[in-house]
Amino acid sequence: AATTGTACVDDDDNTPSDTGYRRIQGGSTSFSTGSGGARRRSTYEEGPVPMCENTRHNWIYPTDDNYPERVYQVEMSHSAIMQNTLVSLPTGLGKTLIAAVVMYNYYRWFPTGKVVFCAPTRPLVSQQIHACYKIMGIPEKHTAEISGRTRPDSRDAMWTSKRVFFCTPQTLVKDMQEGRCDPRSVVCVVMDEAHRATGEHANAVLVRMITDYGAKF
Prior knowledge:
Distance between the termini: 17 Å
Mean pLDDT: 80
Radius of gyration: 17 Å
Strand content: 15-25%
Structural class: alpha/beta
Shape: globular
Low-confidence stretches: 1-19, 27-41
Helix content: 25-40%
């Protein structure tokens, strides 16, 4: 992972537009979650990839007529950005939106890191790609979809040049094991079907690998 010598993207340059997004103060260095007596304060612990000084003090949430702001989605997004969170919602209530918000904020906080979305099927991967492009405006030039059918040399090039990845957990584990993806460079993993991440399931294996290389969860 590149940890020094990379210029941080300016906050305004790394946000697609001031129209349709709002900055929420209270970013990653120090934050609180919960309400009333349940509030809990946490402090960011530096990992292998440095955080952007220009963007670390706030996070971005979309405001658009097509995606009316719902309090529970904002709160779940905040929780998932600030700490490990298992989001359990019925179909159609916004898990894809929440995942896109989380991925976008880690994309802008860690310009030299890798953000990964893992899903077990191609349709679920495609759904999340659409959300990241259309809702949060992550540039396509910074993203890659990787599958077992992607040529090894193409995968090498993608892990070197791209920042946001969409793949199955099995593909990510294989690329880590074969040296294409440096586990130290991964700053965010969003998992569909995360409740299956037990034992030797690929989701559990990849989290253990990233943790072994110094990730702070």
